[in-house]
Every structure is written in structure tokens, then in C-alpha cells.
Amino acid sequence: MRDYLRQLKSVKLSPSIILYDLFKTILIFLVATSFALCVVEMKVIIDNIFGVYMLAVAITSVITRGYIWGILSSVGGVIAVNFFFTYPYFAINFSMAGYPVTFALLLLMSVLTSALTTRVKKAAILSAMRERRAENLTKMSNALLSANTLNKVIEITLDFFFQSNHCSVVAYLGNPENPKIKLFQTLKSQDELIFNSPLELKLAVDAFTKNEVCGVVLNPKVQNCKGSYIPISSENKVYGVIGLLFENDYVLLDTYIFSEIMISQTILALERQAIEEKAQQILLEKEKEKMRSNLLRAVSHDLRTPLTCILGATTTLQENKEKINEVTFDQLLSDIHHDAQWLIHMVENLLSITKISSEDAKVKKQDEIVEEIVAESVSRILKRFPNSTINVSVPEELLIVPMDATLIEQVLINLLENAIRHSGTSLPVRLKVSKEQDEAIFTVTDYGKGIDPTKVSTIFEGKSGAVSADANRGLGIGLSICKTIILAHDGRIFAKNHNCGGASFTFVLPMKGDLRNVNESKNTYC
Question: Based on CB atoms within 10 Å of each CB, which residue in 183, 308, 452, 462 is the most buried?
Fold first, then answer.
């Protein structure tokens, strides 16, 4: 493969570049000749006048492209020495005794000088290019470390391939026939059409399925083949394909090796991303399992009491209906009605959580007017607790938040009911809605006995520690469900005791985009 990788075609220089190099060569030649004529008149370096032209050859080789201009300058210098500074002057005479040998040696010296200068120049350019590539490789590695999605990894890879190789690039994640991600970055608009041609696509697919380099990098004689396709693969998995399209249709060995190094960085990033996604999936499964466990424990805890009460009341009515007076009879019916309402509320909570607990289900958000959601929630809770007082505070401006209205209403009902039933006081409950930047903040505050400080951090978890909190405040599954609903809305929920006694439960919903950080440590109002 080494043989034809080095068969890189010469870069096609534009006529303007050729004319510019020709102009510089002629100018240097004229300056050297003028200088030589001056020093000859001054009788300074008559015997070594050819050194002036050798200096001109070296300068020409440095400031022009390729070998040709240095060689032309060498031939011109030998002719100029013969024409201007060898007797007979201003005439070309190569027939003098010994001059052909001198001419050949001088020409050889000047050509070697030109070749060596050009080689040193190219070595310097190559060294600078390798240094630039090493710098790009470091930048690419750092950029990939910050990539948090597969799409970002491929975008970074594409960008650095384009910058480092100065060629058109296509990147496929997955089989190019049906890729998960397909991105282009091209030097010319028609290059994208070339990448999408049937032949080029077939080569890309072959590179993926066979896990080997395909295209002109392996066989430059393939008819109509333009691109080179390198698989993005580790020892046991092929992630995708990188396609390179150079203007000269060849890939140098040095470029190919550097591309392999860049691809290895991409593979590391893809593997890291796969590990992170797997860990996230495992964490999600653990959270789901914990939620199911907590839900079952909380359900059994909260259903036992009302069912026991209903069973006791109905047993009393059945066995002692003739002995029960009207007041006791009405009280038992009222208790049954109250416990039945509690069970209905429990079922509503369970329906709410099953709406978002399935593996593929997502909350369907719609823009809702916050004031209407608050009004509906307060209205429903006051029907259950007609003797309670709820002070509501909402902004004067119209707040519209993307949400599932039914679920957020359930959260507000759960928090308000928790504050009314378990605060241990008959003081009014306060519901405040505010806006901070692009977030809507809902806070339910009671002025009762507050939360046990040791339980604040686990109040929404339903863990064994939280069960005792339920026993103290009767929280049941309501708060656990509140957390599940708010997290499904990309929001946050937290509780804390405030300075004037009692507790505050706050949840925050993004009004657009992702949720920004909310400072939980600042004091709440009284």
C-alpha cells in the first residue's frame, strides 16, 4: 500500500501563482546580476562572482514553490556568468578550454543547492504541519471530553477532520445505508453530491460491513471512485465510517496514519458515551424499581387505615343497626363517605403516576395558563375541606407554562391537602406563584409544626425513614407522586422549614427549555 500512497499528484497551481513565482525568479536574477556587475566594477569579488548567483538560487528556492524555479535560476546563473563576466564579454562561449567541465560543475553545485534548499523548506513545512496536527489532536481530545451526546461527538470529529486535512468529509454513525447520524462538511457544494452517489455510498457500506479501508486509498484505479472511506471501529465493534474526498484523489501515508489516530480519539469518546448511557439506563431502572417498591409500601400503608375504618363502620351498621341512634348512624355514614373520598383520591394519585411510569411514555406538555390551573386546584381542595382557608398569590402578568394540566393540578392538590391535614394548625395555608427568569415557582406554605429536620432530605422518597415521617404527618404516597410528576416535567421539587414556623413545599417548572439552577438555600417568606 505504501507504493501508491506516495503517488500524490502535484498540486495544480493556478496561472496567477505560476506568473508570480516567475516574476520573483526574474526579479532575484536581475538583482543578483546588477549586484555582480557593481562589485566587478569595484573589483571586490571578481574571482568568486558565481557565489552571488548561488545565493540568488538559494533565495529563489526558499520563496518559490517546487524545484523548477531554483533549477531555472541555476541554469540562468551559469549562463549569466558566461555572458557577463567571462571573456569575450557579452557573448556566450562554451568552447573555451576547460570551461565545459567548469560549467557542468557550477551547474551541478547550483542545482544541488536549489534541491537541498527546497528539501529543507519542505521539511520545515512538514514539521510545522505535524506540529499543527498534534495541536489539533490535543484540541480534539479536549473537545471530545466535553461532548455529552453521540451527535456532538460526530460533529466534533467531522470538524477536526475538515480542519486538519483540508478536504471534504462525511461522517456516518451506524451503517451508511441507514445511518443514525450523517453529517457533511465540504470544500465544494458538489462534493456532497459525490458522497451521495451510488458508487461512493457502496464503498462506504463496504468499509462498514468489511471493517476495512475502501476507496481510492486502496485502489486509485477504481473507475469513477473519488472518496476514501475509513471505518470507525474498535476490536469488536464498528461504530461508523469517515469519508474523505481530496481534490487530488489520493491520500498520503502520513495523512492516513494521522486520520487513524483521530479516529481512535473518536472511538474512545463513543465508547465513553456508550458506557455513560448504559450507566444512565441502569440508574433509571433502579429508580423505577425503587419507585415501584416505595409505591407498594406507601399504598399498603395508606389504604389499610381507610379500608379498616370502612370495614369497621359497615360491620357496626350491619350488626347493630337496630341499636344505633340517628346521630351515631349519620356519623358512621359520614366516616364511610370521608374514607371513600380518601380512597378515590388515592386512586387518582395512582392513575396520575401510572400515566408517566411506563417505559416509553412521556409527559405531553401543552401551554397552560397558570392562574387557571391554580384556581381549579384550589376549587377542588376547598370542596373536600370547606372549612379551610387558602390565601392565593399569583403575578399580575399572565404566566403560560408548558405542562400536563391534569398532573400539575394533582401535585397542587396533594401539597395543599398535605398542608391542611397534617400541619397541626387551623391557620390559613398560603399558595404563592412567582416568576424568576424563565421559571415558574409554586410554593405551598403552612404555619404548623413543620417537618422533622432529619426527614427533610428524604420527605419525597418514601424510604423507610420517610415512613416514620408519614406516620408523623400522614404524607402517604402523595409527596412521592409529586416528585415523580415534577421530574417528568424537567422540574425540581424540595421542602424546607421556614423561619416563622411551619413548612414550605416548592416546585419549579421551566417556562421554556431546560430548567436552570434554583437556589434552595434562600429563606422563604413567612
Answer: 462
